[in-house]
Every structure is written in C-alpha cells, then in structure tokens.
Amino acid sequence: MSIKRLGPEELLALDRFAVDEGNPHILVDKAICAACASRPCLAVCPARCYQLKDGQVHFEYAGCLECGTCRVMCADRGVTRWNYPRATFGVTFRSS
Amino acid sequence: MAEEDFDAIVVGAGPAGSACAYTLAKGGKSVLLLERGDSPGAKNVSGGRLYTYALDLVDPELAGRAPLQRRIVREQIMLLSGPRATTVDFADHGEGAAGTQSYSVVRATLDEWFAAEAEAQGVTLASGMRVDSLLEENGRIAGIRVGDDEMRCATVVAADGVNSLIGQQAGLFPDVKGRAVGVGVKETIELPAAVINQRFGVKDGEGAARVAIGCTEGISGGGFLYTNQDSISLGIVFNPEQAARNGRQIQEIFQDFKLHPAIAGLIEGGTSIEYGAHLVPELGYHGIPRRLHREGLLVAGDAAQVGINTGLIIRGMDLAMVSGLAAARAILQDGGAAGTGPRYMAQLEELLLPNLRAYAEFHGIFGIDRIFKEYPALANDALRFLFTVDGKVPPPMLKQLRRIVTSRVSLGQLAKDAWKGYRSV
Fold first, then answer.
1. DSSP B130
2. Would you list the domain boundaries of chain A?
3. Which of A8, A69, A93 minimises the CB distance to B183?
C-alpha cells in the first residue's frame, strides 16, 4: 500500500470502535448549535464528529476519539454533557 | 467510618497511575488500579517519546524491562514552506550520559507493560472500569463509585488524564481552557525496520525524533515524527482556538503535512494502521492548577496538567511518572491523612516543580505568531537564494538577503519578536 490522503471515514476506519448503540456519551443541544455563530467544533474535532449539513451542525458520536476538544472549545455550551463512553465501549488504540 | 477496601485507589493506568500504584505496592500498601480501557494504553495517545530517567526514579530496574521502541539518537528540526524544507539534523551516536536517554514508545504496549509491573508488585489491576463519581463523606473523599459499586480507601489518586473529570468533580479546578491545551492528531504508519534504518540513517534499535514548524497554516503548533521499531508516529499539535479561527478542518491540514514532499518520502510504501487524537497540556508551569489535593484525593499526571514544551523538547510522560511517584511517596510517609496533600505538594516541590519553573516562560515563544509561518518561509527563501545558480549576475548577497527578510517581516516586527523570544527563554 502506498501513502495517500485519507479522508475522515478512511482515518476512522483504521481504528477499532465498539459503539454503545443508543447511548451517546456526549450530548449536543441542536437548538444551541443552530444559534451558534462561530462553531469551532467543525474545524477542531479531529474525528470530524461535527459536520455541517443543510446549514445545521450534525453530531455523530460513533467515531469519537474521546479527546475532549469539543467540550473544551464549545463556544455556547451546545455540548451539554461530556463523559467518556461506558467501560468496554468507544475507541481502542493498539498502536498509538 | 466504614471499613476501607484498599489503602489507595488509583484512577487511570497511564504513566502517572502506574508509577504511583507500583511505588505504593512496593512500599507495602494495598492498591486498586482502575483503567477505563479494555487494557491499559487502549485509550491513550501520545507523540511517542519517553525520557527514561523517570522510570529509573521509580525503580532503576524498570527501564531494562520496558518495551521501548528505539533510542533517539537523531534530533531533527524541520522548517517548512510551500514545497521547500530546511532540516537541522543533530546526531549523537554515542552512548549518552547515564540518565539522558530517551526512547520512542507505543502507548498500548508501554502502558500495558507498566501496569503489569505494578500488578507484579501486588497491585490489583481492574481494566474496563470507568469511575463514575467520587464518594464524599464529611468533607473528605472516601472512595469511588463504578456503576452501583462503591469502593473505599484512605486516598484516591486521580491520574485520569488531561480532561480530569474527577478533579473537576472534586471542585479542585474548573474545566480546561482552550488556550491551555493543544489538540494533537496522529497517524501510525507501519514500515519495515530496515527501511526506517535506511531512511533515517540509524542502526537497529536507534531512532530519530523530528519536530516541524510551518505546517499548520500559521496556527500556533507544530508537526512531530517519531520512529518506532517498525512504524512511524506522524502528527501535528494545534492550538485549538487558533485552529477554530483558521476554520479549515485540522485533519485536512494534517493530511497536507503528511503529503508534503519532504515528509511523504520518509513514509512512502508504508501502511497507515491507526489514527488517534489527544489533548496535550501546553502551558507548562503556569498551567498547573493551584489545588491538586483535598483530603482523601491527590491529582497527578496530565490531570495535574504537568507538561513541558520548549518547541524542541516535548515532555509529558516522564513528568506524569514523576508526579505519580510524588503522590505515592506522600501516601507512604507517616503523618496522618490530613497531611497527605501538603506532603504531596512538598514531594512535587522536591521532584518536579523546580524543573517546570525553569521553563515557566517558554510558552511565550508560541505567542510569536510569525514563528509558525513567516520565519520558516524566510529560512527557506534565504537558503534557496544562496543555492540558486541561473547563469546571471547575482544581486549583492547581503542586500538580497535583507530584501528576503523584509519581504516577510518588517525590521520592527523582527526586533519585537527577538525581544519576546529572548524574554521567554
């Protein structure tokens, strides 16, 4: 294999995730995000869990790398709860 | 008072937690070491270099058994702009004075090994356990809760990482601020050991470490590269506030760096095997919370925001280990439960804080915005001019060099930045 530019899905596909279906460890209030002007999450989430679709911020916790950047950077407290996934869930690093 | 299940419960089996648990058990204490990942290291990401004096402090026998990757013998600094790169390469193939060695490490293996060493000293290691809250009784921390289970102890050590939800819950400090951290992203790229040896000019067991500036679109931050045994850790750490203002997704900026011709050639033919991200404490001494303890609770490691970043030297794991050791020593000393916190601070003062203070103002360097774009470009412009031959009569050298400098920065800015840099170091 050769080195190439990897998009967000390809990068996350390298990792092992156990998704806690129906039980997000981060809660985002869409109404707050809709009114947020700066939306730092879009640029700084390394997993691109926050994406703009039809002018709205969409949050997907499945590929979260559990770094905490969104919580630290959230401008208007749209991240209403931030916790680590329950034990045995989330990302598992083997080579980092 | 209810009976205690353990003398100490250590939350987080990273470098700080395992160093603490190891030392406590060796000193005869009963210790529970809790890790939220399926195994220690499973949730951890770092650039990947450990200064091993810290392991020696915990126990001189540890480093010989540790799963270290390569001993760093080449230190490289790279200045990038456009398709150009200037690299300063310092090589030291000597043995190195005792206690000055550093090694690239892979956290999944290092952390798992260290926790197993703690277990061998008698620590009870429980992985797959997320601590949900602290048990508080009569104003003191009396233990922890995992789900419906309560576990009691004389001292909880929160080594729960940079986000330290436990320290926050205990009311010791507020949440981390964006300006106080860097967000690091990293790709691990598998390459045969022989190819790494060849490309970095090192022998088996030797490796290179590289920092890069000029790869962040002007955002405060920089790239890093570490050679592991048969993989390369490549990443960038960004100031998240500036990255947010810049607006472009940091993952994309990182991919540009990876594909820069001066980097791509080093990893060509490799296979990307993992992608990770992590927050890094960036402020050094000034970032350490004022309160790192209350009765029944000590905070260590990234949770205590101990880190040093001079631009050339980036330290986290070693300081975490030393802080974990300090916590353990404080618990092992006589003098009653109420004195554990003050004893911890005294230990930190003895083992760690003077070192951090020596670099206390270094973070000011990163306040010089032009370091991340204009100065690397200037270096490349100047060298390109000096190496260019086109058959024409060249302009007077000093005059042209001055023109190159002033095309990027004014002499006033240059003087201001030089002064700021001087003040910081």
1. -
2. 8-92
3. A69
Q: How confident is the model at residue B109 (pLDDT cuts 50, 70, 90)?
A: very high
Are the Cβ atoms of B165 and A3 closer than 8 angstroms? no
| Residue-wise pLDDT tens digits, B126-152 | 999 999 999 999 999 999 999 999 999
In this complex, is the C-beta atom of B375 within 8 Å of any C-beta atom belonging to chain A?
A: no
* Neighboring chain B residues of A86 at a CB cutoff of 8 Å: 130
pLDDT digits (tens, 9 = 90+) for B413-424: 999 999 988 888
Q: Letter for the amino acid at B55?
A: L
User: Do A96 and B259 count as a contact with CB atoms less than 8 A apart?
Assistant: no
CATH 3.30.70.20, domain A8-92, yes or no: yes
One digit per residue, the tens of pLDDT, for chain A of length 96 reads 579 999 999 999 999 999 999 999 999 999 999 999 999 999 999 999 999 999 899 999 999 999 999 999 998 889 999 999 999 999 999 999
CA distance linking residue B227 with residue A12, whole number of Å:
22
Map out the domains of chain B with their CATH numbers.
6-68+105-173+289-351 (3.50.50.60), 179-281 (3.30.9.90), 363-424 (no CATH)
B40 close contact with A: CB closer than 8 A: no
For chain A, say whether B258 makes contact (Cβ under 8 Å): yes
- Confidence at residue B2, expressed as pLDDT on a 0 to 100 scale: 60
Strand B297-299 to B149-158 pairing: parallel
Query: Is B271 touching A (CB cutoff 8 A)?
Result: yes
Write the residue in B45, B163, B255 that is nearest to A96 by C-beta: B45
Tell me: pLDDT of B1 over 60. Answer: no
A51 touches chain B (CB under 8 A): no
pTM of the entire predicted model:
0.96
Banded model confidence at residue B96, pLDDT cuts 50, 70, 90: confident
Q: Is the dihedral of CA B376, B379, B383, B388 positive or negative?
A: positive
CA distances from B121 to B24, B29, B66, B124, B127 (A): 9, 10, 15, 9, 17
Q: Which residue of B has its CA nearest to A42?
A: B249
Q: Taking the CA atoms of chain B, what radius of gyration do you get in angstroms? A: 23
Q: Say what the ipTM of the complex is.
A: 0.97
Closest CA to B323 of B296, B290, B297, B350: B350
**Residue at B338: amino acid letter:** A
Using a CB-CB cut-off of 8 Å, the residues of chain B touching A87 are 36, 128-130, 146
B248 touching A, CB under 8 A?
A: yes
Read off the tokens for B40: 């220690």
